Amino acid sequence: MVVGDPSYWAGLFISIDDRLLDRIVAVWPRCLALLPPNPEEDVITTNLVHALSKDVEARKLFHWLEYQYEPFGFTADGLAFSKGQIDMAVLLDRERDRYLAYECKRLNVLYRGARQSLATRYVGEGLKRFTTEQYAEGLSVGCMLGYVLDGDCEFAMGRVQAAIDGHKVAVGLSGPPVAVGAVGDIQRFATRHVRPASGQEIEIRHALIPFPAAAFNSI
């Protein structure tokens, strides 16, 4: 949990997200060259974290970049327990409760010859973990990465935004999506949510990363 002016921390997290996405654009070709057709989410994220961890410019942004980061929860008597595994977390220093979390989901996946958007899973198994405070408890910013396997980010964005709106009560949506400037080929938008347990608002920043369409067609 951060201490101090929440607007400062929100601004810092947003700045880190912007700059980290710049580096994702830079290392993405290397990741794609290693990935098999129709890669699983964990395979993509493992290779992305590895590439960012080796990137000199990316390493200037964080104390540590962790794959499958486990935030702690605490019982009433102070017993610590794992709240799950965040796909990727940017740690700013040695304080383990102060991090920028990234949940990663596949979108536009080919299954039995048909495209499946998986937008509902993106919301229910990704975004919702922020609004329930399973992840980023007490923090004001969280991030989602959507791996768009057919490269059609416009379609993916429409389906994701429709899925968020369709579950707006469950995720405490407090306003319409807000466009955020693209970073290279990465399409972005942001949503704001009120967490029911604490009443705290959190901004979720969504980044949709395209795979080459040829990779999708070859599956």
Give a written overview of the molecule.
- By secondary structure, this protein is of the alpha+beta class.
- The protein has 5 helices and 11 strands.
- The strands form 3 sheets. Strands 1-4-5-8-11-10-9 form a 7-stranded mixed β-sheet, with helices on both faces. It has a two-stranded antiparallel sheet with strand order 2-3. The chain has a two-stranded antiparallel sheet with strand order 6-7.
- Helix 1 (6-34) crosses helix 2 and helix 3 (119-131) packs across helix 4 (153-166).
- It is globular, with a radius of gyration of 17 Å.
- The mean pLDDT is 92.
List the helices and strands and how they pair.
Elements: H1 6-34, H2 41-54, E1 64-69, E2 72-74, E3 80-82, E4 86-91, E5 99-107, E6 109-111, E7 114-116, H3 119-131, E8 141-148, H4 153-166, E9 178-183, E10 186-194, E11 201-210, H5 213-217
Parallel strand pairs: 5-8, 8-11
Antiparallel strand pairs: 1-4, 2-3, 4-5, 6-7, 9-10, 10-11
Helix pairs in contact: 1-2, 3-4
Q: Would you report the number of β strands?
A: 11
> What is the strand arrangement across the widest sheet?
1-4-5-8-11-10-9
Give the fraction of residues assigned to helices: 25-40%
Shape: globular
How many structural domains can be distinguished in the coordinates? 1
Main sheet summary: 7 strands, mixed
Count every helix, treating DSSP H or I runs of 4 or more residues as helices: 5
Instruction: State the end-to-end CA separation.
Output: 43 Å
